[in-house]
Structures
1.
Amino acid sequence: MTLLANRFNQNVHKIGTSAIRDFDQAVSIIEGVIKLTLGEPDFNTPDHVKEAGIQAIKNNRTTYAPTPGLPDLLQAASQFMQDKYDLNYATDEVIATIGATEALSTALQTILNPGDKVLVPNPMFSLYESMILVNGGEPVHINTASNDFILTPEMIEAALAEHGESIKAIILNYPTNPTGVMWTAEDAQKIAEVLKGKPIFVISDEIYSELVFEQPHVSIASYLREQTFVINGVSKSHSMTGWRLGLLFAPREMMNEAVKVHQNMVTCATTISQVAATEALVNGADDAIPMREEYIKRRDYIYDAMTALGFKIVKPNGAFYIFAEIPSDLEQDSFKFCLDLAKSNAVAFIPGNAFGIGGENFVRLSYAASMDNIEKAMDRLKQFIDNQRQIND
């Protein structure tokens, strides 16, 4: 191996494995552990969607699909975005991708040249940084913790003033992983005003768009369509994470370039999954509503329980995460806090430092878990906190 040690893509050396999955795997060996770690719905894929997939196999829908996607799916995706979010995309402005992850990768590969900088509001989903680096770009982090995790125009303007024309793109994510925070239409419009007319791409990760609680989902593409890649899919809205079906939307000029990257990377998304996703979008457009109602109950239960223990939480209004600031009288190293909690009381959260600057002193927990497990986890967390405070006293 020494012969090849220095022959790898040097950008790969800049990234590591997922801190989220690494920690999840590390605590999985703890007997009886309750894991509130991964962002995966605990609901089953709706029966009518599963049946569509089964029928696709029986009907021998097992050959390649067209590179952009099956025509029926592209039409369904276009109609879904129109009906739900008043966004207009023609069928040649949509690509079916292998999950939202490939949609993100396709967008970044389409636009990045070596040394290009990408603005990334923090805390962030760690994959953003990794994908920027592996594609030769440079992430520029913007810490939003001081503003309850809402990005402001002033934050963007400051970054642009510092980095100038080297900024190629910005990644936005609302509702946000890991905070669950959602912006308002006014917030989105103000951000759009700062970026409009500048040679800056916008990559908007909206995979949680159907899991918004107290207000409608707002897309930056409503105000800045001509510069924006929109990422969506059925993983979270229809509990289809394993089907690996994402969607990438963009104006035709941008999509003409992106489809070439997509084709050379994967050829096409899985035909069977595309058939199932078509069923999900056409006949299951509101399948997320009962899930959303259950998530709200879980969110409120955890919020109340953790707030009573002294955690500071910006109450999330989307996705299925709580991002909680560790009480000041307890261990502030988020990794150590989470590891101690897992080992002593068999409850697993994700350390906040896995989500970039602004994440230290925080923990993220996913409430995509049964209420029974959530109640047990909160009981165990209280026991852990009470014990730690007794030790500290």
2.
Amino acid sequence: MSLEEMKPALENALKAFNEYKGVVETIQTKTNTLEGKLDALDLAKFDKIEKAIGDAVELNQKTEARAKALEDNQKALEAALNRGPLGSVTDEKATRIKFKKAINAFARKDTGQSGKSQLYFDDFVKEEYPNDVELKALSVGTDPNGGYLVTPEMGGIISTKVYESSPMRALASVQQIGSLAYEYIIDNDEAGSGWAGETSSRPTTNTPTLGKITITAHELYANPKATQTVLDDASIDMEAWLAGKVAEKFARDEATAFVTGNGIAKPRGIMSYTSGTDITAEQVEQVNSGSASTFTYAGLVDLQNALKEPYQGNARFLIRRASNAFLLKLVDGEGRPIFNMSYDKNAGLEPTIMGKPVSFAADVAAVASNALAMAYGDFRAAYLIVDRIGLRVLRDPYTDKPYVSFYTTKRVGGAVINFEALKIQKISS
């Protein structure tokens, strides 16, 4: 109730007080002169009057106290506002000391652990510092002003950044090996032959030759560290989380190497071979797109038809996802889209162009002049991945105390083994 709202009640109480005051004085006179002659009715009236006077006095005292408190708060607020920003070091220091004392006092107070009602910090400030405007302004927006006392609630799910990768491991052949390297024998020649008459001589024909490709299992490693305290006290299983993150990074790193790796201490990627049709020289044919800035329908036709028929049954296109836009923008002479790559993922249908499925690989180059922006072929026949050892983790809590190292390794290799089964689309110069 405000002071203005209390004024009518106060005036009525004072008026009653003055009226009863005269009555009391009269009764007191009678009491002094007629002591012992008061009947029960007079005594009851006297008690009623006395209670009314007491109530009026109590109300008056409460009203005066409330008015004084409002006046003090108003003065304190005006003083705080007139002070201006805390540019003064003295003012800021005094405020921080006051905040610190209030926080410490609250921390030491029984807040409801013994069957008492829970006490919140706002209620504590109102109770212990009723006239302190600065303390009443405590908020969780800044740490010194109460933010330290308000801890956020942790959700049960960690939002993880998504990285695009390449599906080479799913498309290529995979071989588990038990040694440093894998030697793949290539039958890339044919036997000589010829026609001969009944009595003609039969000269010796050419004997086919064999080739060999050696695929070395290279080491991929990671060595993250965490303190033992974090491992003990974190709200999640940090070891499992780190292992999962390393495994995901390994998968992306090897996928990149399968596409663009140079073969030096890493697998050799499909895009790293020289252009040509000589398979004995380990060359992969590159077909120009017909444009320096995009794919063309004619270029796609040339690319598809450069692949020999035995490989067409399992052939597919491999492009960067963003390059899909260049395919969808190809139109005929009437301005109508040539390709409709809509698909139903729930039905398991893949996007297709020219009757062949399309896979998206983030490691394939973007469309640009001279870029190797597309691959087409039977990837299972063309590329071989060799796995020597899967993920292996060495937990080391001794070398760099107080840190625990998780030295993680994987040995993997990869290379093209059939150069006829793969063709590359190169954006023209």
